[in-house]
Structures are given as C-alpha cells and as structure tokens.
Amino acid sequence: MDYAKTASGILDAVGGPGNVTHLEHCSTRLRFTLADTHKVDHARLKAVPGVMGVVGTQPQVVIGNDVVEVHAALTRLTGMGGGPGAGPGGAAAAAVGTPADGSRGGWGARVLDFIVGVFQPLIPAIAGAGVLKSLMLLATMFGLSKNGATYNTLVAISDATFFFLPLLVAVTTATKLNTNRLVAVAAVSVLVLPSMTKRMADGTSVFGLAIPNVTYSSQVFPAILAVLLLAVVERFLTRVTPKPIRIFFVPMVGLLVTVPVTLLFLGPLGFRLGTGFTTGVLWVFHTLGWVAFPLLAVALPFIISVGMHKAFIPYVVNQLSTAGYEPLYNPVSLAHNIAESGASFGVALRTKDTEMRSTGVSAGLSALFGITEPALYGITIQNKRALISVLSGAAAGATWLGVTHVTSYVAVGPGLASMSMFINANDPRNIVNAIVGAAIAFVTAFVVAMLTWSDAASTTLKVRGVVAANPPANPDQALSPHDVLSPTDGTVVPLSEVSDPVFAGGVLGDGCAVRPTSGEFRSPAAGVVSMLFDTHHAVAVSTDDGVDLLIHVGLDTVRLNGTHFTAHVTKGDRVEAGQLLITADLDAIRADGYDTTTPVVVTNGAAVHVGAVRAGTHVAAGAPLFPVSTRATVDVVS
Question: pTM of the prediction?
Fold first, then answer.
C-alpha cells in the first residue's frame, strides 16, 4: 500500500486538512472529528485504495493492519501530532472535535464517541498489565513461588495499574475534553490518596457535610464525572478570569470546586453508575445462562460493524477492575474473533480470485490474533455466505464457552496471542475449555465457508466486476473471457450516435459509448494503466489480452482542466477488472454545459477485432459491452 497516496485520498474525501479538527486511531480505524461533516464525500472515501469501510457521521475509516502507517502519513499531511493537552487555564475554552456546523450527530453517537475517546487509550496499559499477571499465574503453575520476591514485584505492576486506574481515566477524559490533564489528575488523585481513604473509612466531612465512605481504587466512573465537572468549571473560569492570574487562579478554583463536589456527590454517583451498569449486564448473563453466549455471538458482527461494541468497554473495565474477572463479553468475543478467522481462511481456499484470496489470508491472520475489522469489512459483511459461516462458527464456539462457564481475567481483544487471559490458577480447566471453544469456532466457520462459498454469489466480486452482477439466463449470452466490461452504470449507445465527430467517425477506434448514471468509472478489464491525462478526464488501459482501451469521460471535458474529476490510479498501475479508475461529479459537469457521454474505444484496431455492441441496453458497471478478439484469431477462423 502507498500510505502517502491513501492518506492524501482520505484527506481529500473528508474535506481537506482545514476540515479536520481531531484525528486519532485505534487498532484498525482512523477516527476523525470534522468541522463540517457535510463536506465528506462518502463514495470517494470508500473508493480510496486501502480503505475497507466507513462508519458514522464523524467518519471512522476502517484501514485494517496498516492503520498506524496511514495515520502517520495523515499526521504529516495535517500537522496533527497528538501533542500535550491545554496548558493551565489555556486553550480549554472550546472542546476538541466540536464541529463548526454543530453536526456531531445524535446524542447516542456523541455518547459513544466520548466512551471510545475515554476508554480506548486505556486498553494498552490494562491489557499489558493484565496479560503480564496472567503469565505470572501461569508461571506459578510450573513452580514459581507466589511468596517469592520476583513474583510479588512483577505482579505489583498489574496491581498498581488497576489500583490507580482512576488517574489513568482522568488523563484520557481530560484529553478527550481538551481540559488540563495534570489538574484533572490532581483532582482525581484525592479519591485514592491513602490518608483520605483512611479518613473516609473513619468518618469525615467537608463544609459540615459528611463524606460517604466509598473505595475509589480501580473505579472509572467517579473519575469521569469529576473531570467532566472540572472541564465545565475550567472553561467558565477561563472566560471570566483576567489573563495575568489565570495560571494559578483557574486551576486553584477548579480544584476547590471539583474535589469537594466529587467527594460528596459525583464520586458516590459514579460508583453507583458503574455498579449498576455491571449489575445489568451480569443480570442478563445470570438470567439467560449459557444461552446468552450464542445470542451475543451472532449479534457481534453487526454490533462491531457500526462501532457499538465499544459500549461494552466500560462494563469490561469496571468488572475486571472491581471483581477481577469477566464472564460474558470476552469469552463471546473469543468465539466471534476466531470464527471470523476460520471463515476468512475458508473463503481464501475456495475462491479463484487472487485479490479475494489475499484478503482472506490477511484478514484471517488478523482475526486469529483478535483484530476482526479486516475480515468483517473485507469479507463478512459484504458476502452473505461468509457471514453465515461466521455466525455458525461464533454460535457453536460460544455455546461451548457458555456451557463450560469460561471466564476471562484480562481486558484485551481475545485471540491466539492473548489466550493467557483465560488462565485461572485455581481452575486449569478454564484455559483448556477456552482453547476448545476457540477450536470449535474456527473449524465450524472454516467448514461452512468451504461448503457454501461461491465466487458467483459474492457481492464483493460482483461490485469489482470479476463476476456478472446479473448472469444472463440464456447460456448463449454467457460472458466471454474476452468481453470488454462497462466502466460504469448507464445506457449503451453506438459510437455513431456520439455528438463528437472524432468518436462518431471511428477516428480513434471502434467500440461504443455509455451515457452514465454513476460518477464512478472502473477498469473494463485487467491490465495496466498505459495513460492518464493530466486533467483526469480520460484514462487508457492495456489489457492482459493485448487490447488497448480508452475511457473518455464526457465530450470536450478536457476544457474543464481537471475540475470535477478525481483519479484513483496513476500511469503504470496494475488494475483488475472493476477496479476504480476515476470518479467524476456528473451533475457539476452537466451544469457547466458538457455532455457526459463516455466513449469506450479500442485504439489498436489493427490488431484487435471488436464484435457486436450491446447497444440500447442499460448496463451496470462490470456488465459486458462488446467482445474482442485478436486479428490473428479472426484470420484463423475465416
């Protein structure tokens, strides 16, 4: 992948660098916050090479395994490097990511965006510490003493991470709200200060009001509420405080207001919220029992596809940090992740398309290690038979995990490399049952994919034009391997009806034209881009069968000097049939007075014979326009 080219294409499609107010990434997605979401061209964004999918109004762009490199390229283009938060009383007057048009989506989308922004950055620390502890437990099963200095020192790393979790949450929340991080940490640190914890246990008060005795170590919601209040207070104080005293007055008053209110009200409220949320999820688990596992497993592909799985993170983090185990979401995620892997490998073995095979292998490996977006967006969601394979494997594996009561002990994406998250020193069967459940999920999904996959039924291959979108009922009209395919949707017309004497007279060669209804123009055959006009209104492809094709979008459109056209390839690029070459704003071209009729011409007519044109029919991109054969073949036949 050309990371710079992909980043540039993405940036153009989201409205340019001036429209990006915030940019971050998770394990597979770029997460944008834009000033004006109306500037996003979703069709162009999805067509950028390397983009696997787009989710949400504030777009989440699914890249897959190359997300770090693409993010780095975007950072260089936008100048956004994820620097430190606002200084004391400084640039906290406006929240990062608040669009100028106010279009942040509904409350549900805004809450989900906030949850992701707060909890996603926590995962590496929590996962690293949790996996370390699980490995230490594994070591004790092989003889390492739990009373030894080495064990206790290394386990303290994990214990400290969870004990001081409120401070980590304070940092991520302050970052998301663009408020002062260090002041946020100072405010929340009072909740876990040992002397304050002792006073609350003994009974203490502030301003004559009794402070509830709550243990805040390992809690997340009290810290979130505290920083939310601090952000509001800080922004108000920044507006009304004289600049010469802001540096100490804003944080001082912010702490003076935030800490007592948190100790008296927000802290206990946050504790109850966390407990209630966790209790609700566990109630479903205890009510439905093992049935909850396959039900959640078959829902996960759809939940993940719209990004809603992030809503489970607060529950998982809170449950693990308080109870030390999580009995539902992580085990079900294991079944789903491994099923995505099995289905992807099954598709890779069954397909005859090299690009689909490559996608299947790459996505299968990623899913095997807990990263499912490449499989989900590259294969599963687009193809019904692959989706059925995943659902079958996930349900089968999750049923086993539910019946055997498999429990997780670490907040990390379940996969081959993180199986230690299921280690329980007091119950060795837990990790064994987790492995068996994963194997069931993989084998079931793999076998179903092998039995059911068909290239002819693949939506992905139809869109790319590798197979016919609507196979002809008459066998005599079956596609020839030498058919030139339509580059776009529209009505086929003979060249003689084109209102340009050069094309109508066959000066450039024989072929036909399409009156397009879509602004996407794709390669009519597999080959190499032999020419791309600087104005991007025309492109030539030399096919693997030795046919030189010219696709000329519109008539006299060279005069537009590239306006309304975007090229998605460069000269010398290898392209497959159906691969996007050019996008054009047809309405704008017509508004400027130009005919959008698009000739598709064979320019090496001396060597290639053009057969009967399917004129007068409406075609979709990838449908046959006319057959071609080399002159040598024609001579032999004659």
Answer: 0.54
